TrEMBL record:
<dbReference type="GO" id="GO:0003713">
    <property type="term" value="F:transcription coactivator activity"/>
</dbReference>
<feature type="domain" description="LIM zinc-binding">
    <location>
        <begin position="88"/>
        <end position="150"/>
    </location>
</feature>
<dbReference type="GO" id="GO:0005634">
    <property type="term" value="C:nucleus"/>
</dbReference>
<dbReference type="InterPro" id="IPR050945">
    <property type="entry name" value="LMO_RBTN_TF"/>
</dbReference>
<dbReference type="GO" id="GO:0140297">
    <property type="term" value="F:DNA-binding transcription factor binding"/>
</dbReference>
<keyword id="KW-0677">Repeat</keyword>
<feature type="domain" description="LIM zinc-binding">
    <location>
        <begin position="24"/>
        <end position="86"/>
    </location>
</feature>
<protein>
    <recommendedName>
        <fullName>LIM domain only protein 3</fullName>
    </recommendedName>
</protein>
<dbReference type="GO" id="GO:0046872">
    <property type="term" value="F:metal ion binding"/>
</dbReference>
<keyword id="KW-0862">Zinc</keyword>
<dbReference type="GO" id="GO:0045944">
    <property type="term" value="P:positive regulation of transcription by RNA polymerase II"/>
</dbReference>
<dbReference type="Pfam" id="PF00412">
    <property type="entry name" value="LIM"/>
</dbReference>
<keyword id="KW-0440">LIM domain</keyword>
<keyword id="KW-0479">Metal-binding</keyword>
<dbReference type="InterPro" id="IPR001781">
    <property type="entry name" value="Znf_LIM"/>
</dbReference>
Length: 158
C-alpha cells in the first residue's frame, strides 16, 4: 500500500486590528478579540495567547510563523515532527517509519526495529552481531556465507 504523506503546515498571519472594524471572535476562547493585534490561522482569528501548541503549550505566534495541524490538533513544528514526522521508508517492509520510532540503520537504509532481521532465516541481531548487506537484503553471517558459496564466490584460501 502506498501512503501519501503531506505536511499540513499553515502560515500564521499577524494582523493589526483597525479601530473601526468590529471585534472578531477568538477561535480558541470564543471571546471577542479587543487587542491591538490578532493572529489569523486556519481561516480563523485568535488571541495571541490562545493560539497554542496542543502539546507543549507554547504560544505559536512567538515561536515561528507556521503551525501544523493534524487530527484536529494544533501543533508547533517540533511537536508535529515528533508525533507525525517520518524518518524514511523501512528498507525491509517499505512502510514509512515515524520520526519518534527507534530505527536501525545500515549504510543508507533505515529499518523498523522489528524488521531488522536476516531476510532469509529471520534471525534477529543483537548489539555486536555481524550482519551483511547484499543486494539491499540484510543477511546473517551464515546465510551470507552460504550465498557466497552457492554463487561460487567462496573466499579463497591463499
Ligand atoms: Zn482567545
Ligand atoms: Zn509544541
Ligand atoms: Zn519495516
Ligand atoms: Zn540468516
Amino acid at each position: 500500500m502506498m501512503i501519501c504523506y503531506k505536511d499540513d503546515a499553515t502560515c500564521i498571519q499577524m494582523l493589526s486590528v483597525q479601530p473601526d472594524t468590529k471585534p472578531k471572535g477568538c477561535a480558541g476562547c470564543n471571546r471577542k478579540i479587543k487587542d491591538r493585534y490578532l493572529l489569523k490561522a486556519l481561516d480563523k482569528y485568535w488571541h495571541e495567547d490562545c493560539l497554542k501548541c496542543a502539546c507543549c503549550d507554547c504560544r505559536l505566534g512567538e515561536v515561528g510563523s507556521t503551525l501544523y495541524t493534524k487530527a484536529n490538533l494544533i501543533l508547533c513544528r517540533r511537536d508535529y515532527l515528533r508525533l507525525f514526522g517520518v524518518t524514511g521508508n523501512c528498507a525491509a517492509c517499505s512502510k514509512l517509519i515515524p520520526a519518534f520510532e527507534m530505527v536501525m540503520r545500515a549504510k543508507d537504509n533505515v529499518y523498523h526495529l522489528d524488521c531488522f532481521a536476516c531476510q532469509l532465516c529471520n534471525q534477529r541481531f543483537c548489539v555486536g552481531d555481524k550482519f551483511f548487506l547484499k543486494n539491499n537484503m540484510i543477511l546473517c553471517q551464515t546465510d551470507y556465507e552460504e550465498g557466497l558459496m552457492k554463487e561460487g564466490y567462496a573466499p579463497q584460501v591463499r
